[in-house]
Amino acid sequence: MRDSKQQPVPFIAAGSDTAKSPESRASMFLDRALSKEDASLFLQEAQQNPALQTALKQEESFRSLIRNGVHRRKASTALIQSIKDKIRTAPH
Amino acid sequence: MKKKNWDVVFEKELMPFADALKTFAYHLTYDETDAEDLVQDTLLKAYRSIERYETGTNAKAWLFKILKNGFINDYRRRVKQPSTVNYDEIIESQDDEDASPSTSLVDMKTRLVRILEADSPADAFPLTSHNDLNTELFANSLGDEVTRALDDLAEEFRTVILLADVEDFTYEEIAKILDIPIGTVRSRLFRARNLMKEKLKAYAESFGYEDKRAQ
Asked: Which of A1, A39, A65, B151 has the fewest CB atoms in 10 Å of its CB?
């Protein structure tokens, strides 16, 4: 898969009321789904808009709860060794 | 490029994602062994087509896409197959058990001798993988609520949370991994996060998160 640039999603999705809510905008900002200009506008507005600020903080703490709370698994050393052994003998 | 060089690329650029792949695979299969099988299949498939990989590009997204396809095409198909029972094997195994009724008594005696001879029970029975698992479960109990809430979600919602919030993929990367439009990624994420918020409301509040969505 080739890496390609993220296509910015419109700041307010047409016909979507939820996209206008502070939660939705904060979510899109944190998802890196805004263009550079929209992200910068969002930050400027958040400095003066307490509702937007609160939504951003809440969304940040929710994301961090998920990121830190989900149990991560570790590939066992036996698995790593087995893969290495298989590629060592695999033709290419 | 020679095999030796491809092997170096594989070890340096693809193998480091084994843990992340395992986490994803585990939350899809809920089974340690199946998860490891999926990770192994994924990495070996990637190795077989490594010539199509351009060094320095998005290896992680590529590997996750292979894993997701392997899960759908191989794993899910395999587990949906009705399991067949070999009655001859069951009868043979039953015969073996009947032939040695004192096995459990011998086991008990051996364990007792080991406890009496050892300085402590821990010396008598060093940690086995089962004990290790219990220790790990205990140590990870703080994240149990989050993991349980995630694992309760339907697969389509669980997948987007794992990709976006645990693995930090963008909408576009998720769309490519799952072969769905970006708009679908966004709406699934929106619903999935709301479901997680509902499930974690009380737990999240104890961490300072206040749910003001309804206000």
From this structure: B151
Q: Which two tokens stand for residue A3?
A: 């890496």
Q: What average pLDDT values come out for chain A (92 residues) when binned by 10 residues?
A: 44 44 92 93 94 93 91 95 89 68
What residue segments make up the domains of chain B, in order of their start?
3-80, 141-205
Write down the pTM of the prediction.
0.70
Instruction: Choose among A2, A58, A67: nearest Cβ to B57.
Output: A2
Tokens of B17: 């994602």
CA distance B209 to B178: 30
Q: Which CATH class is domain B3-80?
A: mainly alpha
Cβ of A76 and B26 within 8 Å?
no
Question: Per the CB < 8 Å rule, is B182 touching A9?
Answer: yes
| Global ipTM | 0.77
Q: Distance between CA B26 and CA A81 in Å, rounded?
A: 19
How many A-B residue pairs are in contact by the CB < 8 A criterion? 127
Instruction: Return the CATH number of B141-205, one of 3.40.190.10, 1.10.10.10, 3.90.1150.10, 3.90.226.10.
Output: 1.10.10.10
Q: What is the pLDDT of residues B43-66, one digit of tens each?
A: 999 999 988 887 778 999 999 999
The partner residue sitting opposite A83, judged by closest CB among B44, B197, B200, is B44
3-state DSSP of B114-144: HHHHCCCHHHHCCCCHHHHHHHHHHHCHHHH
B105 CA: distance to closest CA in chain A (Å): 33
Cβ neighbours of A58 in B, within 8 Å: 209-212
Spans of all domains in chain A: 18-89
Spatial distance between the Cα atoms of B104 and B96, rounded to a whole number of angstroms: 13
